[in-house]
Fold this sequence. Notes:
alpha+beta
Amino acid sequence: MKTILLHGPSGCGKDTQADLLVDKYGFEKIVTVLGKRGFCF
């Protein structure tokens, strides 16, 4: 599974609950709901 990190105070690299959301809903839906702006790749 692809790891997704949301922007933290210091930029990329902060672990969040995004991985749990991906496990539950799937990557595509998370991107659709939250928008790519909130993600680091």
